[in-house]
Design brief:
The chain has 13 helices and 16 strands. By secondary structure, it is an alpha/beta fold. It is globular.
Length: 365
C-alpha cells in the first residue's frame, strides 16, 4: 500500500514526513514523499527552490513528476539534501517544481496521484506557518507553504492537512493557531525519531530538529535562527494535529491569492503584495552577504570563549537550548563552518549535546 505525503515547505518537512509516515503507518506501507528541493543557503548557495533542470540522474515517475534517487546530483553550484535523504531513508522522493506556479503544482499532484493510486494523501507542515494570515510580524517564509496549500485545495482527491509541532518554526506563536488546530492524530515519542536519527546528525532543519527533540523529552526554551527567536519546547510541541484544509485556506490570504498562478515570479509578486515581502528576496540578499564573507579557520580556544559569553547572555534571556545554526550565526562564523563547529562543541562538551540541540542552561567548562 502506498501513502503519499506532501512536504509543504520542503527541506525539513521532507525529513519529518519520513518520521511521521513511520509513526502513523508503520513499515509495511510504502512512502512517497513529494517535496521541493528548497534547502537553506548552508546547503544550496543559490536562492529559491531548484527545478528538475538543476539535477542530473533524476528518474521519470510521470510526464510531470521526477523522482530523486540516491544517485541523483545537483548541478553545481546548486546543492540539495534530497539525494542523501533518498540514500538514508526508506521512501521514494518526488520533486515538486514550483516554477510553474500553483496551477503547475496541481497538475504535478494530479499526475502523481494517478500514477501511484495512494491509499492516503497527507499535506504536512512542521510549525504551522501554513495557517498564517500573512500579516504576522514573525512570519518569514509563507510562500512555499502557501503554494502547496493552494495546489492541494485544487486537487480532485481527498487531502488531509497535518500540522506537527505547532510553533516550532518560530513563525507563528502556538496560541495564534489554537482555534484552527483540529484533533491530535499522534503524539510523537522518542521511538518515533529512530526513523530519522541518523539524518538529524547532519540535516540543518531547525524546526524538524526541535520536533524530534521534544519527542525525545527535551523541554525548555530554544533560540533559533540568526535573530535568536525564542521557541518554547513543551509537551504539546510533539503533537501532530489534523487541520481542516478549507479552514486553512480561509485563513491563508496568500494561498487564496496565488491559486491561479502559472509561474513562480507571479506567486512571488503576490507574496510581496499580500505579506509585504518574498522569502526568496531575503535569500537573494543573504546570499550576496554570504558571498562577501571570507573563509576563516576555527580557533578552538577563541570559539569556546565566545561560546561562554553567548551562553551567559542567552541564559539571561531565559534560553535553555539553542541550535547549531543559531550558534554559528551568533559567533559570526560562515555557515560553511557549521558542521566543523558542531563537531568541536560536541567533542569539547558532550554533556551539553541533547541531540540534535545544544543545551545552554548549565555552566559547563
Amino acid at each position: 500500500m502506498t501513502r503519499l505525503i506532501v512536504a509543504a515547505g520542503g527541506g525539513g518537512d521532507a525529513v519529518a514526513a519520513s518520521m511521521i509516515h513511520a509513526a502513523l503507518y508503520g513499515d509495511d506501507d510504502q512512502a512517497v514523499i513529494l517535496t521541493y528541493a528548497w534547502d537553506r543557503l548552508l546547503i544550496d548557495p543559490l536562492p529559491g527552490p531548484r527545478s528538475p533542470a538543476d539535477f542530473t540522474g533524476l528518474g521519470r515517475l510521470t510526464p510531470a513528476v521526477w523522482s530523486v534517487p540516491a544517485q541523483a546530483r545537483p548541478i553545481e553550484p546548486a546543492g540539495s539534501t534530497l539525494p542523501r535523504l533518498a540514500a538514508e531513508l526508506p521512501a521514494t522522493f518526488a520533486l515538486l517544481d514550483p516554477y510553474k506556479g500553483a496551477t503547475g503544482l496541481t497538475r504535478q499532484l494530479e499526475s502523481l496521484v494517478d500514477h501511484v493510486h495512494p491509499a492516503s494523501i497527507d499535506l504536512l507542515d512542521v510549525g504551522g506557518d501554513i495557517l498564517a494570515q500573512g500579516d504576522e510580524p514573525t512570519l518569514k517564509s509563507p510562500l512555499a507553504d502557501a503554494l502547496m496549500l493552494a495546489a492541494c485545495c485544487q486537487l480532485n482527491a481527498s487531502v488531509r492537512l497535518l500540522v506537527a509541532g505547532p510553533g516550532l518554526d518560530g513563525e507563528l506563536p502556538p496560541e495564534s493557531m489554537t482555534r484552527a488546530l483540529g484533533p491530535v492524530v499522534h503524539m510523537l515519542t522518542a521511538e518515533d525519531t529512530a526513523a530519522i536519527s541518523g539524518v538529524l546528525e547532519w540535516h540543518p532543519s531547525e524546526a524538524t530538529g526541535l520536533l524530534a527533540a521534544t519527542a525525545r523529552g527535551v523541554r525548555g526554551t530554544c533560540e533559533i535562527r540568526d535573530a535568536g527567536l525564542p521557541v518554547l519546547l513543551t509537551d504539546e510541541s510533539r503533537a501532530v494535529h489534523e487541520v481542516d484544509l478549507d479552514d486553512a485556506l480561509s485563513r491563508n490570504r496568500l494561498a487564496r491569492a496565488i491559486m491561479s498562478t502559472a509561474n513562480l515570479d507571479e506567486a512571488e509578486a503576490y507574496s510581496r503584495e499580500v505579506c509585504g515581502y518574498s522569502e526568496i528576496d531575503y535569500e537573494r540578499n543573504k546570499a550576496l552577504w554570504l558571498n562577501e564573507q571570507q573563509p576563516t579557520n576555527l580557533d578552538p580556544a577563541a570559539i569556546l570563549s565566545q561560546l561562554a559569553q553567548f551562553e551567559a547572555e542567552a541564559r539571561t534571556r531565559g534560553a535553555t537550548h539553542t541550535t547549531f545554526r543559531r550558534i554559528t550565526e551568533a559567533l559570526r562564523l560562515s555557515s560553511a563552518k557549521r558542521d566543523e563547529l558542531r563537531q568541536l562543541l560536541i567533542a569539547s562538551r558532550p554533556k551539553q549535546y541533547e541531540a540534535p540541540l545544544w543545551r545552554i542552561d548549565a555552566n559547563e567548562s
